[in-house]
Amino acid sequence: MLKTIHNGLAIFRFANLSRQPGLDHAVFTRNGGFSLPPFASLNVGENTGDRPEAIRKNRQMVAGYFEGRPLVFVKQVHGKNLLVMDGTDTAASGEIKEADAMISAVPGPMLCIKLADCQSVMLYDHIKRVAANIHSGWRGSVANIIGTTVRTMTDKFGCLPSNMLAAISPSLGPCCAEFKNYEKELPEAFWKYKDGKNRFDFWQISKKQLTDAGVPEANIETAGICTSCNTDFFFSYRKEGITGRFVTAIGMAT
After folding, report:
1. CB 180 within 8 A of CB 197
2. Helix, strand or coil, per DSSP, at residue 46
3. Is the separation of the CB atoms in 134 and 83 below 8 Å?
4. CB proximity list for 233: less than 8 A, separation 6 or greater
């Protein structure tokens, strides 16, 4: 990943997405905002216990990085509902519906996913100019929300998986993703991704779901950064309990 500093914000970007003309994206860290501990400091997550005015200012800072373009947030519920923006609806700032993935063919709005150990999987078809951002925790992995999103991009916009680029954000790594009750929580197909201490490699699981959906392995970039091991940069619910949410965003320029 490529790290930059912008107006006091530490921002990571993926090399594969950065090479696409007219596409904006960023992985923001937890640093540079207005929230106080234990939410310090760029917390964008509502319903975390943080002060609403701090969250509002933090989101304004994120929007400022994208020159004030609208930030589209959804109420993430660990399900498999999708928000699809095709130009017939109006995107607005604020959390507008329950969904765990967003797809857009509309230039301008930035699709935002809030995280504290779960993955954001960003997709982009540079031929059809369609972007997506997916919230995939372990429940989303079980539901294969990644595969659902790829199929929806194909069915709704005529995208080809072979043209898609994918990026897997910092998230709970195979070093820390222990599931003591994995036999009840995770399908047997996932068990080959665990080590002797029942820690699972969800980066590889997501990569497999992407390739199964037709995305070429060469088009997939993984951050390879564990949020639990790097709480100086990222929020981690597994490590911290009461904490904030950092944000990833992707969208096309107008």
Report:
1. no
2. coil
3. no
4. 10, 29, 30, 31, 170, 225
Residue 2's CB: how many other CB atoms inside 10 A? 11
Rg (CA), the chain: 17
Region of 145 please: left (phi>0), alpha (psi -120 to 50) or beta: alpha
Q: What distance in Å separates the CA atoms of residue 149 and residue 140, rounded to the nearest whole number?
A: 11
User: 227 to each of 153, 240, 243, how far by Cα in Å?
Assistant: 29, 11, 12
Grouping H, G, I as helix, E, B as strand and the rest as coil, residue 135 is strand
pLDDT single digits (tens) 77-134: 999 899 999 876 544 444 557 999 999 999 999 999 999 999 999 999 999 999 999 9
Question: Which residue type sits at 168?
Answer: I
Residue 211 sits at the vertex; the CA angle it makes with 208 and 212, to the nearest 5 degrees, is 80
Q: What are phi and psi of 43, to 5 degrees?
A: -85, 125
Q: Which amino acid is at 12?
A: F
Helix (H, G, I), strand (E, B) or coil at 74: strand
Residue 242 has what DSSP assignment? S
Q: Per-residue pLDDT tens for 165-217?
A: 999 999 999 999 999 999 999 999 999 999 999 999 999 999 999 999 999 99
Q: Using CB atoms within 10 A of its CB, is residue 114 exposed (0-12), middle (13-18) or buried (19+)?
A: buried
Backbone torsions φ then ψ of 146, nearest 5 degrees:
-65, -50
